[in-house]
Amino acid sequence: MLIPRVRTYVPGLDEVLYGGIPDRSVILISGGPGTGKSIFGKQFLYNGLARGEGGVFVTLEEHPVTVRRSFRHFNWDIAKFEKEGRFLIVDAFTAGIGSTSQREKYVVKDVDNVHELVDVLRQAIKDVNAKRVTIDSVSTLYLTKPSIARSTIMLLKRVIAGLGTTALFISQVPVGERSFGGPGVEHAVDGIIRMDLDEVDGKLYRSIIVWKMRDTKISMVRHPMDITDNGVIVYWDRYLKLTAASVSIQPLPKEMVDEMRRAVEETENATRETKATAQEAEEE
Ligand SMILES: Nc1ncnc2c1ncn2[C@@H]1O[C@H](COP(=O)(O)OP(=O)(O)OP(=O)(O)O)[C@@H](O)[C@H]1O
After folding, report:
1. Model ipTM value
2. Which residue is closest in CA terms to ligand 1's atom 5?
3. Which of this chain's residues are annotated to bind ATP (predicted)?
């Protein structure tokens, strides 16, 4: 059955997901430091903005000023979308302290109060009619209180799915650990994508693996990936064989590649049809 999907438009990732993320899903993006989670979260939002969708970025780890700079670093011009009222940043970092933060309109004063965050986020999603949300990072919300991790995720998930939005929750895990963010969180989310950086023989290798994604088939292998001046690229037609002492990159079987390519084409056609129907309905 063809289900509605949100294409990430991150090169190679929609193939790995057999078309994209099922819509209204909450996806955990887990990984150690420097693996590309924040870049991926920004790219996902920008790709939606560039195609006419609204988006919200919730920052808990970086000052809004550096968030905007980081978008600019990849030539993702969010300033024009902010002016048009299609994109906004929820500042859950500064608590309103400092002169530059005075300019922020969506500020969470107390990040320990998840209800305040949910209220600000709900308003933000409505104000820009957001279809995509990135929260960077959810780990900050329960780092010192693991017992509230699951309830925090469930509360956010209810708001996000209820408003018809698809979200990436960035989750930080320690270097070298293959966990995702704790048992309560891992089972509560609809999907888990893991980004990794491994040192083998004095060299670092980037890779990505989709661990779970409800309601869709997924590629069951680890794919090599890169970060470039244009953001993340996933080499979807190859897999990375990694042992403690060796690395090799192998091509995927042709039938698998063909099936993944077809799934993306079908999703693209379905997305185009849905947009055309919505536009016709608007014009009537
Ligand atoms: N233009 C670029 N070309 C190649 N690599 C880049 C470029 N810009 C940034 N990077 C790489 O991206 C990495 C940072 O990615 P990102 O901030 O998304 O990591 P992260 O997984 O969110 O890390 P953390 O959890 O520590 O915040 C940097 O370590 C840097 O090596």
Report:
1. 0.98
2. 227
3. 31-38
Q: Model confidence over 64-85: pLDDT tens digits?
A: 999 999 999 999 999 999 999 9
32 annotated as ligand-binding? yes
Residue reference for tokens 């055309």: 276
Q: What is the CA radius of gyration of the chain?
A: 19
229 contacts 7 by C-beta, under 8 angstroms: no
Q: Which CATH number fits domain 5-283: 3.40.50.1110, 3.40.50.2000, 3.20.20.70, 3.40.50.300?
A: 3.40.50.300
| 31 among annotated binding-site residues | yes
Ligand 1 centroid to 137 CA: how many Å? 14
Q: How far, in Å, from the CA of 6 to the mean position of ligand 1?
A: 24
pLDDT tens, residue by residue, 131-167: 999 999 999 999 888 889 999 999 999 999 899 999 9
* Ligand 1 proximal residues by C-beta, below 6 Å: 31, 33-39, 172, 227-229
